[in-house]
Specification:
- By secondary structure, the protein is α+β, with helices and mostly antiparallel strands.
- The chain contains 9 helices and 11 strands.
- Helix 3 runs antiparallel to helix 6, helix 4 runs antiparallel to helix 5 and helix 8 packs antiparallel against helix 9.
- The longest helix has 30 residues.
Amino acid sequence: MSISHSNEYLDYKTIATLNQQHHIYLVQNTISKQVFVKKELTVYSLEVYQMLKEHPIFGIPKIVDYYEYNHKLTVIEEFINGELLCDKIERGDMYEDDICNYIYQLCEILEQLHHNMPPIVHRDIKPSNVMITTRGEVFLLDFNAAKFHSQQGNRTSDTVLLGTQGYAAPEQYGFGESSPKTDIYSLGILFKECLDSIDADEKKYESIINHCTRMDPLDRYADITELKNQLFYFGTHRCERKKEYGHGYALPGFRTHKPWRMFFAGFVYLILLVLIFTVEEKETGMISYLGNFFVVLWIFLTILITFNYRGILDIGRKSNVQVQKKRVIRGIIFNFALLVLIGMILAGIKNVFGTV
């Protein structure tokens, strides 16, 4: 049996292997040169991928193309440039506001899935299936275990565990049928794991986590919207999906709140400030101060560009057409152009004011 959504999949070439074990590759369209992710699945629901292709959901990579051959589904989807939540957990460099923000955004994504008709249950929510972009936006990945949930009363117990041990709800082990409450259970486990990674005060969130992870699905939150509202009224009202970067306007060096980084960054910024008032003997007056000011300004802007401050290198780009190498090249060009511009400004000032 062969089902193809289009013939465009023939125009993709593999440029990198992202996960050999799970057959996930980075591919490039030979015509448009856009970069995408290709996944080869042996366990899947074709109907789920058809729905996601026809009705894209914000927070889920867009399905660009798919085709089925010999009981294997190949999916071409949007490339999301970011970091997996499992890597953030391993480093333990998140904060409570970050975690609440991520969980809240996952609730928003699941709300769209669960309110679909019929509802879609993801069934494999775990840190390695959650991507965090540099903008602090959350994307839910990997729908190979997802399925439509029957609401007609003819339900049957799950016979095969398609989730991941440690995150899968009891009903996924054959004690009942997966439902939207299955995702609520996994989200509660994920919430707890994130908090454990930073030694947060879990008692503050204990009631929410316990309500999510009760053995009997009937004892959990009625739906994902109730959980989302609980997070909101619990005092995490800052958790709405943010378009800005997760650490606000904090300068590079102060975004992680690590003392040694803050000390080093503070020292560098202090040196830059001192340079503004350092007058060279060969120049006097306004030209000297302006010259120092523009040189320091260039160094400061170079720091912001190098560390991609608030996504300055992401302006005007689509996440699925960029890779890290292009961003670095763009940063180098930007810095060089900035240096030339400042040099021209200084030369103009000197010509106008002389040695005033």
